[in-house]
Every structure is written in structure tokens, then in C-alpha cells.
Amino acid sequence: MTHQSDASLPDRHPVEGPAVETAYTALYNWSYAPEIEEIRSLYANGLERQWIAMRDLDWDAEIDREAFTQTFSMGGIPISETAFWKSLPLETRWEVSKVSASFMLSNFLHGEQGALMVAGQLVSAVPDMDAKLYAATQTLDEARHVEAFAAYIDKLDHVFPITPGLKALLDSVISAPDWKFKAVGMQIVIEGLALYLFRDMRTQTVEPLLKKLLTYVSRDEARHTGYGIRYLGHVVPRLGESETRELQDFAFESTRLLMASRVGSAMRDDIMAVWENAGVDPDDVLVRLASERDIIAENLNRTGGRYGPVSGFIIPTLRRIGLYSERTAGQFKQMWTETQGAEAAARYASSSVELPDDLERWVNEGG
Ligand SMILES: [Fe+2]
Ligand SMILES: [Fe+2]
């Protein structure tokens, strides 16, 4: 076969792994006047707050390595305040932290790709015109997040594969036939966790490029979560009992998958390999860290522990939109009991954090 080759257009389009079959109902809406004022104003805000990743951030600047290693967390365990971590040479700290940060940021990046696809689906799937317009702005926001996280990881190390739990969750949201399930899975659960973690990382990091990147990204995510809360808060109270129950179960199951994706033996092995490659014996690391477990526990408590994002954000959000019942509370408590023990479960279950009214202000409060 002969054809004019154009070097700028690839002949082959990469397909990575099995595709996800999805079928959802696309809805036209012939009424164009603003109807849900709260969502129309979010759309206007989304337009107003656009930014351009490649122009507005300084990608030529080298990452400040010393600053970057000051807030290191090892698979979610904050160890940067330990004497052990501080005793390591900068070169070792940089080697370990850049690779493990790439692992974590890679999953954020893959999550952003999932968000990009779901936001695009919502343009067709949501019934209200205001909600379609808004979803279009979110689609562009998520495209920018994919671009920006990929560029930052490129300065650190390389992109790691997605964890199986996160992949399973994205598949279930992308293939959900009903837009309400997509909105619960993406706008409430995934966006809620992302906003919580981005805010936390933004507050803690002193690396200038990462801080600026997360400031822009979390501002967008605050709007995305705000959309879920306003739209579903409007829709859920009008649903019948059985549909409400199904949405509650989907929210719980999505949260369970998301939390499971953040741990696992594969991840522990990866982290241990990182230490070994940096020339530190992983067994030594464990012994040294065990002797400083009080300092680590103190740091972990500051961010609410492993389930901080769930009890401190996702559950308050579900409560606000009417998807948290006594039955749901029982499901969460059982999950905590199985994974963390009865004492921790009781502590999480009794936490009654209020959802902040102004999410963007809440992001900025971190400093
Ligand atoms: Fe995003
Ligand atoms: Fe988002």
C-alpha cells in the first residue's frame, strides 16, 4: 500500500489493554434558558478561572530537590520528620522521594484521565442544559490536569502503571449506564479524595513548582466537587427509595475500591525496591522507622490517618447530598473494622466533620 506519509501523524494508534465497553443514554435538551442558577454560575466561574498549564507555570525551572524531599511520604506514611530520614544524604533522599512521588502522582495522573473521560460523557448524559455546559468546562479542566501532572512526573522519573483498584473503579464509573452513578462515583467519591489529597499535599509541600501546580489544580477540583454537591443535592431528594439505595451502595463500593487501591502488597514491594535501588537496605529502613513510630503517628494524625479523606470529606459530602443513611454508616463501619480494627472503626464512625461551605477558601486556608 502506498500513501503519502506525514511524519507528524502517527500511523498506529496505541491501544493499551482491553477496552471498556460503555453504553449510556445521551439526552438532548431543547430548553436553553438558565434553569439551575447555582450550576450556571459554576459554569461561568469555570470559564473565568481557566489557566494554561504550559504558559502559567515555569517548566524550565529545575525542581528544588532539597525542598522536594522535606515533605516525603512513603506510600501514605509521612516519614520526613523522622531523624532517620533527615540523616540520609540529599542524593539518597532525592532518589527515594522522586521515584515514590512518581508512583503516587502517576495514579493521580491516571485518575485525571478517567476524570477527563467521565466529564466528556457527562456532557451527553446529564439531562439539564446548565449541567451540560458546566461538564464541558470540567472536561477542559481535566485535560489540563492530565497535561500538567504528566509534565511534572516527567521532571521526576517516569509514569508507573495504574493500580488495579483504581482501574476497577474507573472502569465501573466509565461503564455505568446512568449518569447519576457516574456523577456519584466521579464527582463525589474520586473528586472528593483527589481534592482532599491535593489540598493536603499543597499545604505541606515547599517545592515551588509543585505548590503552584497544586494550587491551580485544587482550585479546579473544588469547583468539580462543588458541581457534584449542588447537582446531586438537587436531584437525590427527588428520587425514589430503591434508586436512592442503589446510589448509596454505589458510593460505598466506589469508596471501598478507592481505599483498597491505596494499599496492597504490590505497592509495598515497589517501595522496598526503591530503597534498595537507592543503596539503602530495606530491612534497615523498617527497623529505623519502627523506632520512631511515635513521630510518624503524630504526623499521620495531623492528616486524619489513612481514612482521613473518607471520614473527613467523602462522608460529609454524602451526608450533604442525602446519600448517607444509617445503613450506609453500618457498611462503612464494617469496612473500617475489617481493615483497621474495632477501635479505629469506632473513632472514624464517631467523627462528625462538617463539609466546608466554601471549598475554594478551604483549599487556600492550608496556606
Ligand atoms: Fe482533575
Ligand atoms: Fe476533577
* Number of helices, where a helix is a run of at least 4 consecutive DSSP H or I residues: 17
Rg from alpha-carbon coordinates: 21 Å
The dominant shape is: globular
Instruction: Describe the strand arrangement of the main beta sheet, using strand numbers.
Output: 1-2
* Intertermini distance: 60 Å
Give the integer mean of the pLDDT values.
90
What's the main sheet like?
Answer: 2 strands, antiparallel
Element order, helices and strands? HHHEEHHHHHHHHHHHHHH
Bound molecules: fe (ii) ion
* Poorly predicted runs: none
Helical content stands at 55-70%
- Percentage of β-strand residues: under 5%
Which class best fits the helix and strand makeup? Answer: mainly alpha
Brief description of this entry?
By secondary structure, the chain is mostly helical.
Any key phrases for this structure?
single chain, about 375 residues, mainly alpha, two-stranded antiparallel sheet, 17 helices, about 70% helix, about 0% strand, globular, binds fe (ii) ion
Helix-strand blueprint:
Layout: H1 37-48, H2 53-56, H3 65-69, E1 73-74, E2 77-78, H4 83-87, H5 90-125, H6 129-156, H7 164-175, H8 179-204, H9 208-235, H10 241-260, H11 265-277, H12 282-290, H13 293-302, H14 308-321, H15 326-340, H16 342-350, H17 359-365
Antiparallel strand pairs: 1-2
Helix pairs in contact: 1-6, 1-9, 5-6, 5-7, 5-8, 5-11, 6-9, 7-8, 7-10, 8-9, 8-10, 8-14, 9-14, 9-17, 10-15, 15-16
Bound molecules: fe (ii) ion (2 copies).
